[in-house]
Amino acid sequence: MTTSSSTALARDLKSGALSLAIAEIAEEAARLILPYWRAGTAVETKSDDSPVTQADRAAEALILERLAALYPGVQTVAEEAVSANGAPASAEDWFWLIDPLDGTRGFVRGGEAFTVNIALIHGDHPVAGVVTAPATATTWRTDKPEGGAFRRQFGALQAGEAHAGEDWRPIRVRDRPQEGMALLSHSVTDEEATRLAARHGCSRWQGTDSSLKFCLIAEGRFDAYPRTGPTSEWDTAAGQAVLEAAGGRVLADDGQRLSYGKAKFLNGAFVAMGG
Ligand SMILES: Nc1ncnc2c1ncn2[C@@H]1O[C@H](COP(=O)(O)O)[C@@H](OP(=O)(O)O)[C@H]1O
Ligand SMILES: [Mg+2]
């Protein structure tokens, strides 16, 4: 990476300009994805058995092009590129993690819980992240873990109306209520979900696709999201950034903060928690 890009990243992180710019990119990707939603889009199956559509590919190409124009030469680790060409052998000091369409299974079923995810990693942890839910035109962002997390409805979805939505509003995790409420992936059985929720002090749970789970905890609507099965780092990085900035935590099995740049960019078990 060029020295000017690392200087620009550090400067824009500090000012808050970085996550604002990344939010615009994620919202542009959302507008690209929406015409494919509930439109009978053809679904292919990747070698790992997971689904992919034209929407995933088009959104990833757009995001990579916009990031390269803003900050040339920064390493990118993006779901569809890794699926096509393999993962980079190692992570650089600064790198982007991109999941252009997380929750593709739900997207294909016509559900609302699918997201665009862009995160910036520095060292071993996310320092900025944006999650956008195209179906509800909602974006969550942060670029200063100590400076808070924010959410906005980005309003009309027609091209050129990117700024027509609400202002950014701060969000915060809630204090744990008497009866905690967990979020679980639809990939676990009801029995497993009940057991995992109870293990994290939650007597009730709800199944939800995608990284939206991190954002719902960050907004104070749920309390925990335990996951035992594998995920890729681009599935969790942006959501973790938002949740941590809103006062929550994401811990790996060893009790440490979930870290990034691991072998094959794969996560093991973790739990995301609110207050
Ligand atoms: N064995 C595995 N290895 C890596 N990631 C996996 C995985 N099984 C599921 N995932 C990831 O989990 C995401 C779905 O999470 P959830 O079940 O919480 O919605 C999928 O994201 P995509 O939809 O982007 O492919 C997929 O990448
Ligand atoms: Mg994903």
TrEMBL record:
UniProt xrefs under InterPro entries: CysQ (IPR006240), CysQ/Inositol_MonoPase (IPR050725), Inositol_monoP_metal-BS (IPR020583), Inositol_monophosphatase-like (IPR000760), Inositol_monophosphatase_CS (IPR020550)
GO terms (BP aspect): 3'-phosphoadenosine 5'-phosphosulfate metabolic process; phosphatidylinositol phosphate biosynthetic process; sulfate assimilation
Keywords annotated in UniProt: Cell inner membrane, Cell membrane, Hydrolase, Magnesium, Membrane, Metal-binding
Binding site for substrate: E79, L101, D102, G103, T104, D235
Annotated Mg(2+) 2 binding sites: D99, D102, D235
GO cellular component, one term: plasma membrane
Binding positions for Mg(2+) 1 per the UniProt entry: E79, D99, L101, D102, D235
Subcellular location: Cell inner membrane
Membrane topology: Peripheral membrane protein
Single GO MF descriptor: magnesium ion binding
Keyword Protease listed: no
Cofactor(s) of this protein: Mg(2+)
Reaction catalyzed: adenosine 3',5'-bisphosphate + H2O = AMP + phosphate
Listed EC numbers: 3.1.3.7
Domain of life from the UniProt record: Bacteria
Family of this protein: Belongs to the inositol monophosphatase superfamily. CysQ family.
Biological role stated in the UniProt entry: Converts adenosine-3',5'-bisphosphate (PAP) to AMP.
Annotated NCBIfam families: bisphos_cysQ
Record's protein name: 3'(2'),5'-bisphosphate nucleotidase CysQ
Originating species: Brevundimonas intermedia
Gene giving rise to this polypeptide: cysQ
